[in-house]
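Annotated sample (chain length 108).
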Amino acid sequence: MPIQILQDDEKLIYTMAGSKIFYRRISTLKRGSIVRIHTKRGKTDWNAVTTDILMVVILGWEAVQVKGEDVPFDADLALKLPEDVLSEILALSGGAGDDGDNGDTEKN
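Output written by the structure step:
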């Protein structure tokens, strides 16, 4: 795959069950910065890393509901989206890594 330049105004769409989640990709540099922020004494808090990455990549939504009513986008509420949706967006955005981001892990 050729090198792609990420645009600051990038807006991709993830669609599921009639809802649209707008997201953007995250650069490896930005992802690495977030990982470093949450690494202390060789241990990385992957829950905090995942939360921060999702806060960067999720931009908005359409037709997302709470108790059957559409709700306006709220970044904090975005973290309450179903886990499978968050995992998919994390993977599509480039936020998921192959460095064991499931719980606290020790870096070598």
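Annotation: Residues 17 and 63 are 9 Å apart (CA to CA).
Annotation: DSSP finds four helices and eight strands in the chain.
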